[in-house]
Specification:
This protein has 177 residues and is an alpha/beta fold. The chain has helices at 10-21, 38-55, 67-74, 81-99, 117-131, 144-154, 165-176; strands spanning 2-6, 25-30, 59-61, 104-107.
């Protein structure tokens, strides 16, 4: 089976790739217009690209730094920004998988205990249906801590927030309180 794995970052990809490689040929896909600032975007993208090269998996990329596209999509209803963000990324992943001969797609978003797991599944299923792709659902959450430890041991860039400007604000707001 040929699997396209949307990856939000290298640390989240570690265990997901390890698990999916047992099921088929897994490639990494970068599409994350939500990540801000540009330096953070570049750091995460470079880390994922280097990780893919180090482990010998194919790496694909869709679009570039998409801050304006992301902000336009979520404004003015920023309270539902996560759903919009998931949709932006998973639609592109499902479309790329369908157009490029992948048997299935998945996402590293499914490893994070901090993301809305059920909403991700719902949006991924809708994207799969929209583009005639197959979602390969796996609950990677039990492997989150182990994956993070492996990422640290590998010396991968470890970020401190989900990536969007709002999560960065929340990160700093919590430190002050």
């Amino acid at each position: 089976m040929k699997i396209l794995l949307h990856a939000c970052c290298a640390p989240c990809a570690v265990k997901c790739v390890e698990i999916l490689q047992k099921e088929g040929d897994t490639s990494l896909f970068w599409c994350n217009p939500n990540i801000h600032p540009l330096t953070e975007y570049r750091a995460r993208r470079s880390a994922l690209e280097a990780y893919a090269k180090d482990i010998g998996v194919e790496y694909f990329e869709k679009g570039g730094y998409g801050l304006q596209e992301y902000l336009s999509a979520i404004w003015p209803n920023t309270s539902s920004r996560c759903a919009t963000c998931y949709k932006m990324r998973l639609d592109q992943t499902a479309k790329y998988a369908s157009e490029n001969g992948f048997d299935a797609f998945s996402t590293t978003l499914l490893i994070s205990p901090y993301q809305d797991h059920n909403l991700i599944i719902e949006i991924a299923k809708a994207a799969a249906e929209k583009y005639g792709a197959t979602l390969l659902y796996r609950d990677f959450r039990p492997y989150f801590r182990e994956g993070q430890a492996q990422a640290r041991a590998l010396g991968l860039y470890m970020q401190k927030y989900c990536g969007c400007i709002f999560s960065e604000q929340e990160r700093y707001s919590k430190k002050k309180g």
